[in-house]
Design a protein that fits this description.
Alpha-Beta Plaits, Rossmann fold, 8-stranded antiparallel β-sheet, 13 helices
């Protein structure tokens, strides 16, 4: 019996602290898999080639990833959908949404720095969803700390059982290559990224012919023996999110990347059964279920500056999608999908067919939002993707007062993408923008300027905190009527308390015990 096409799909995300080499790894993986012919470098200058996965102008200028990209490549008869997440903490909400669409993740660590704060935050999101994690320790071509120290840190801070599948011979200028602990092979290292030597036997004689000195040979053989004392790799423990296989290499030098992709092909799971609600009752959706279904985890506008386009990224959960199908949202809105897109950074191609585990782009004019569920019947609703209370509030105003209406439209469009949040105070005509971090504000100003040709000023708002007000409708309306000066609505029209301090929120809660003032809101 032939396997269902969904069983050949693998959806994974790459998570890391900024500067650990995530974007370079993404590029090199695509290059190694034959998806691109020349990798870009994040630090490229001037007319030098740009990275394939960072397409936004501000990303290219600052050498960071601030929007999630989706890229597809094939390896060993499997179709991989790589979800490239922002590394910067100011975009943690975008990363959280992207991880809801992933079945596994690669955690990239800098060999010299180990686990950094943002890595820890992103790992916690993976743990909440029990996502299996493959660890890649990067930048061995630079001076690194003792690998045993990094493994101990993973065990201690992340409470994960570690299984080194490889072991490095030195680091920095002494870096001589990497031993494969499962097959006693050794991969010699070359500083020339395009001429990595073939594997050899992991014996003193062969290592000597590969140019390793006697001290380094003794060191790697001794350490490899110690590394074999770690527990054996257990696939089920990995799938449960309790164990991580550890790989080493240098993304910049294209070293160790093929072995990492092979590990993904061997270990990471395909699409899983998901729980949704149908007519209010929980149902299990298997990848091979007949009904086509999926959910929107990201919306991106203006990927092509020549066209005012807007694309919803849909992770398919079941069925065989065919171009031209009509899908319905849980709100019974019908979407005709005539031009579904498969992504490769800036490159796109039309998808005639797609299956569970595929990510397709659905062009639309504002009909789809992050968190929307799609199905043929319109009766399925997947778990919502939450919005988080912003940590920064700013008042937005156009430099040209006559363009206030245009600015509001631009802010609404960006808020619908999930770039930031937009609150409309009950009194006055202010536009209050909420963000997790200041870089989000910078990105928004840049995009409004380049995509909408508007100059915008973000000023300090009199408010410091936003909280969604939840409770019985009559009680919420009564509270809103009494506190009009502090009330606003979000993009969905949900009531929001804009407070000047945490004390104000606490006071409102004490005086209104029947209400809840929430830090998160899930679209239901």
């Amino acid at each position: 019996m032939s396997q269902h096409p969904s069983q050949t799909r693998r959806v994974f995300a790459i998570i890391s602290h900024p500067d650990a080499g995530k974007t370079t790894l993404t590029e090199t993986m695509l290059l190694s898999a034959g998806a691109i012919h020349q990798a870009g470098r994040v630090a490229a200058r001037g007319e030098a080639r740009r990275t394939q996965s960072d397409w936004m102008k501000i990303e290219q200028e600052r050498g960071i990833s601030v929007s999630s990209s989706v890229m597809t490549f094939e390896h060993k008869d499997l179709t991989f959908n790589l979800l490239d997440t922002p590394g910067h903490e100011d975009f943690s909400e975008d990363t959280y949404r992207t991880l809801t669409a992933a079945d596994s993740a690669i955690m990239v660590l800098d060999a010299a720095k180990g686990i950094e704060p943002q890595t820890l935050k992103l790992f916690e999101v993976c743990r909440m969803r029990n996502i299996p994690i493959v660890t890649f320790i990067n930048k061995l071509d630079r001076e690194a700390r003792d690998p045993f120290e990094t493994l101990a840190e993973i065990e201690d801070k992340l409470q994960l059982h570690v299984v080194p599948m490889q072991w490095p011979a030195g680091s920095g200028r002494r870096f001589g290559g990497m031993a494969d602990l499962r097959n006693d092979k050794f991969y010699p290292f070359s500083a020339n990224a395009d001429q990595q030597p073939a594997a050899i036997e992991f014996t003193p004689e062969c290592l000597s012919t590969a140019g390793l000195d006697d001290v380094l040979i003794d060191e790697v053989i001794e350490e490899a023996e110690l590394a074999k004392e770690y527990p054996d790799f257990k696939l089920q423990s990995f799938l449960d999110g309790d164990m991580t296989p550890v790989y080493f290499g240098s993304a910049l030098r294209k070293f160790g990347i093929t072995q990492l992709i092979d590990a993904l092909a061997e270990f990471v799971p395909g699409p899983q059964t998901e729980t949704a609600k149908k007519n209010g009752q929980p149902v299990e959706i298997t990848p091979s279920s007949k009904e086509v279904s999926g959910f929107v985890f990201k919306v991106q506008a203006n990927m092509d500056p020549n066209h005012r386009d807007r694309v919803a990224f849909v992770r398919l959960s079941s069925g065989e999608f065919k171009r031209g199908m009509k899908l319905k949202t849980a709100e019974n809105k019908t979407i005709s999908v005539h031009n579904p897109i498969l992504f490769f950074a800036q490159d796109r191609e039309l998808a005639d067919n797609a299956y569970a585990g595929d990510v397709i782009g659905v062009p639309n004019h504002g009909a789809l939002r992050v968190g929307d569920s799609l199905s043929e019947s319109g009766k399925l609703r997947f778990a919502g993707i939450p919005n988080f209370a912003p940590e920064i509030l700013r008042r937005a105003r156009p430099l040209d007062p006559l363009k206030a209406k245009h600015l509001r439209k631009a802010l609404e469009s960006l808020a619908e993408e999930g770039v930031t949040q937009l609150f409309r105070p009950a009194m006055g005509s202010d536009m209050i923008v909420g963000a997790v971090g200041s870089l989000q504000i910078d990105v928004m100003a840049e995009r409004i300027k380049t995509e909408y040709n508007l100059e915008v000023v973000f000023e300090s708002a009199i408010y410091q905190i936003a909280r969604w007000v939840s409770g019985e409708r009559e009680a919420v309306e009564a509270f809103a009527a009494k506190n009009q000066g502090a009330m606003a609505t979000d993009l969905d029209g949900a009531p929001v308390l804009l407070a000047k301090s945490a004390w104000d929120v606490g006071y409102a809660q004490d005086k209104n015990p029947e209400l809840k003032f929430l830090k998160t809101k899930e679209r239901s």
